[in-house]
Design brief:
Layout lengths: L5 H12 L1 E4 L2 E3 L3 H9 L7 H12 L5 E2 L10 E3 L4 E6 L19 H24 L3 E6 H4 L2 H12 L4
Parallel strand pairs: 5-6
Antiparallel strand pairs: 1-2, 3-4, 4-5
Helix pairs in contact: 3-6
Length: 162
């Protein structure tokens, strides 16, 4: 049986963990359940990142993963071209204009601050990398899911390196 996409898998987990408190009310999981759910959200080797890795490899580009000696620890680093590539999730990094970029209804103030901090951290990392002489590229989750769009975006960014 084929592997389900990550989004569908997490959605299933969320639905399975919901516990009815009273008739007609479905509430989110309690703390240990929530913790278990959030532990399944990965930072490395995500579906979109794996798609980008396969696409760049297919194009003949070789990379290093998560170089911690560089600001922001880019997802893919192409030392030969001095290019750092970040693969951002549309939800966590708030890709404006994307349908995956939603704001949770509960605890909205917390999430606004969380997303603002994520975006500020991303901006700082890219600025630092540029000061060090690196070119930076951000590939969004929604771009990575469309193979044609992803290939065009990578060809456009890498230009004459190909």
């Amino acid at each position: 049986m084929g592997q389900r996409p990550i989004d569908a898998e997490l959605r299933t987990i969320i639905l399975d963990l919901r516990v009815p408190k009273r008739a007609g009310c479905v509430c989110l999981p309690t703390s240990p359940e929530r913790s278990r759910l959030m532990a399944r959200v990965r930072q490395k080797r995500t579906g979109p990142e794996l798609l980008v890795r396969k696409a760049t490899h297919r194009m003949g580009l070789r990379y290093r993963l998560n170089r911690t000696d560089l600001p922001g620890s880019p997802d893919l680093v192409f030392p030969k071209y001095r290019i750092a590539l970040f693969v951002h999730g549309c939800f966590w990094h708030q890709h404006r204009g994307c349908s995956r970029c939603t704001m949770p209804k509960s605890n909205e103030a917390y999430w606004r601050q969380k997303f603002a901090e994520n975006r500020a951290r991303d901006t700082r990392a890219i600025r630092k990398l540029r000061r060090l002489g690196w070119k930076c590229c951000v590939v969004w989750e929604c771009e990575a899911m469309n193979a044609t769009l992803l290939a065009d975006r990578l060809k456009q960014f890498f230009g004459e390196a190909l």
